[in-house]
Amino acid sequence: MNFIGSWITTKDFISEKPVNVFHRELDNVEIRNCGQKGYYALFRRNFMLDSTENTVIRISADDYYKLYINGSFVCQGPAQAYYFSYNYNEVDISHFLRSGENEISVLVFYQGGINREWCSGDNRQGMIVDILQDGKPILCTDSTWEYSVLHNRTHQENSYGTVTSENIDFRICDTAFENAFVDTTDDHIFKDTLAELIDICELKPAEIRKLGAGEYFIDMGIEVAGSLKLTVQGERGQKVTVMYGEEAENNQAAFDLRCNCRYLDEHILSGGIDTLDYFTYKAFRYINVSTDIGNLDPDTFCIVARNHRFQEKIALESDIKSLPEIWRICRNALKIGIQEGFLDCPTREKGQYLGDFTVSGLSYLYLTGDAGMYRKTLFDFADSARICPGLMAVAPSSYMQEIADFSLQYPLQVLNYYKYTGDVDTARKLLPTVRGVLDFFRRYERPDGLIEGEMGKWNIVDWSPNFRDGYTLPNEREGFIPCHNVINAFYIGAMQTENDLAGIVGEPPRHNVEPYKAAYINAFFSPETGLFCDLEDKAHSALHSNALPAFFGILPDGNRIAEFIKEKGLACGVQFSYFVLKALANLGEYEAELSFLTNESDHSWVNMLRDGATTCFEAWGKDQKWNTSLCHPWASAPIIAIVEDLAPRFPDKIRIVPLD
């Protein structure tokens, strides 16, 4: 899509050249940054209209915008993207307009750092707009637009570089506007398809407690993503402090979150009427509001919540103990964890991870039928092949991380999309990316076809390390990666899946997988124990080394994998539990699969419920990882297991109910 308008920016950026922030993770690259961080600029333009009907706006910005027309909030975006495949939004704005003079204001935020949330730190700042009426342009961005750099907002970041606190000093009034600069060298390339806008709504708290003069405690009843909106009036220099937490004790939100975020905002009032209306968002359940202006009206408290469109198509009915509650926390995590991408969590990284998407994407697809969001994510990661054909682990972002296990799950994600939608055209478009992944790893094949070597990608096995069931892998992040079970199981599975996709689009298979399976069995299977081992020394057999061959159908004669998995239970992390559950299904062990979902050990979704979960966690319990995220959609495998395996086999106990 080509805009009619020009890309406009500010004086601080017009002379800056773009910085290449993209590289292989382990490459020794120094990123030169312009030094601008936490940069807010307000662009505006007045214009006249005789008629307001059939008026749409096309808009994009880097990093992010909030659009206002005649003082009313309209929308925000765009979804994060690489500059060479950038997103834009289109909105009908007819009902925001009036005959006569109108004002459009666009608040643009440039974060400026290298992190998982943004494609930033590259000196690309600014915005572009076309306003069309009956398809004809009536206003586009050019040098007649004005801007002002705002200095009344500051923010703090966590160690991951994502924003956790946003402070506003309402005494600072930025009124000095000057004409915007047209950047004739701007290199954004816009996609042909629109990016969907996230849903914004206002929620009332479940409970508000007055603790004292100017002291309030808010409980939303469930974890949400968003921020407090509050209008106050006090004397100039008085303060309002807002503390958010996922946990609380004695009416105090734990604003130092265990996931390494500090959710404390401090605001200084102007003396007039001030509205706390944030640019960024948090994930939380509890809030404390503290102010020295005296009592506030509790009816004015509301939460501006945000998430991707979430329209459930199915619900669960079951009398099995804990199963409805497990479904519910998975559902809730998916709702607030799917923003403009499939985030690993909405608190800490706020990034879209490839491996997380294996679980969260399919769970979300079953729950909502939102194939468009799933398809968008497949192309997000396909875009990262420009950096490395073996794909990046988090995309799109300026943070360069590579995880081999996650890259090899991409073919499975494409196949799952096809199975749900029957969309052959998309499978055909993505098959070259799938083949690029396999070609990347093929260079590390040794003579028998198994892979090892200097891959430049982290072999994660499972996260965190204490969930690997004793699976020991030296040099997991860099250096020479020895031949080991998990990466080779994923490699063989990816080859099988590529062959399946080739057949779907009418092309011949590229891989003769049988010799690879034979080499895998020879290297890792122990006939004496009937189990697969982690390494070629066959000294140890972890759950992971046996769940994956069962998942991918590599089952030699004389194996006792089914018994072993049932003995081990969920001796793994929550993302890998998807492969364990589906391995049991492939082995016909559906009773065991159900028991794994509802078991009450400390490695279970029931344990999350005991810990007070309203969304599923990053780990099985709050204290099982040093910085556990309490909202992590990668733990939503129960939805997949119930829909694909358990509801069809136990219809008297588990029912999937369609929703209107």
Describe the structure.
The chain has 660 residues and is an alpha+beta fold. 26% of the residues lie in helices and 24% in strands. It contains 15 helices and 28 strands. Strands 15, 16, 17, 18, 21, 22, 23 and 24 form an eight-stranded antiparallel β-sheet that branches. The longest helix has 20 residues, at 485-504. The mean pLDDT is 95.
Task: Please name the defining characteristics of this protein.
6-stranded antiparallel sheet; 15 helices; 660 residues; alpha+beta; 26% helix
Please bin the fraction of helical residues: 25-40%
Mean pLDDT reading: 95
Q: Termini distance? A: 35 Å
Q: What fraction strand?
A: 15-25%
Q: Let me know the number of strands.
A: 28
Enumerate how many helices there are, as a single number.
Answer: 15
Radius of gyration: 26 Å
* Derived structural class: alpha+beta
Q: Name the shape in a single word.
A: globular
How many strands, which pairing sense, and closed or not: the largest β-sheet? 8 strands, antiparallel
Unreliable parts: none
